[in-house]
Write a structure and sequence with these properties.
With 161 residues, the chain is α+β, with helices and mostly antiparallel strands. The chain contains three helices and seven strands. The chain has one domain: 2-Layer Sandwich (60s Ribosomal Protein L30, Chain: A). Helix 3 links the parallel strand 5 and strand 6.
Length: 161
């Protein structure tokens, strides 16, 4: 299942009962997405709701959040990533494949399932772009994230001209 344009991705999102959130504005000196040649790199992005924009699923997995909350947060972070990519690329159909998904999960010291949390984002990539788009993955548990986010994703994406 290859994406044939933004409309194809948006239709698949809609079929899953999902939609893209508002893009998160950059606060500070950084770009949410940097495109160099045929590769796009995203800054760390988290799940949001709104307007007004608010962090979705704030807290720590294994403490005030369940593993399922963490998975939903990872999926939401991927939706935020797609919203930023749509702004930068103009068309989600330019996404050829995800190369790497790096996820940081705010979790308790004894929570050893961070790979399952980040894996939920990779699973959504497959649902939207097909098996060929599945990415490499890094999953890291951390003690804290900005604004009490429970999951932050950084993605590297191959894009078409």
């Amino acid at each position: 299942m290859a994406a044939t344009g933004s409309s194809g991705v948006i239709e698949r999102l809609s079929g899953l009962g999902l939609m893209l959130p508002e893009p998160i504005p950059a606060i500070g000196k950084y770009r949410p997405v940097v495109v160099h040649g045929d590769v796009a790199h995203t800054s760390g992005l988290m799940a949001v709701t709104g307007p007004p924009l608010q962090i979705a699923y704030p807290g720590r997995v294994g403490d005030d959040l369940t593993i399922d909350d963490g998975k939903q947060s990872a999926r939401g972070a991927l939706l935020s990533t797609l919203a930023q990519l749509q702004v930068e690329l103009g068309d989600l159909g330019r996404i050829e494949r995800f190369l790497h998904v790096r996820g940081y999960v705010c979790a308790t010291a004894d929570f050893d399932k961070v790979h399952h949390v980040v894996g939920a984002a990779n699973a959504l990539v497959v649902e939207l772009f097909g098996d060929d788009a599945i990415a490499g993955r890094t999953a890291v548990g951390v003690a804290t994230l900005p604004e009490r986010a429970s999951v932050i994703l950084e993605c590297t994406v191959a894009v078409r001209a």
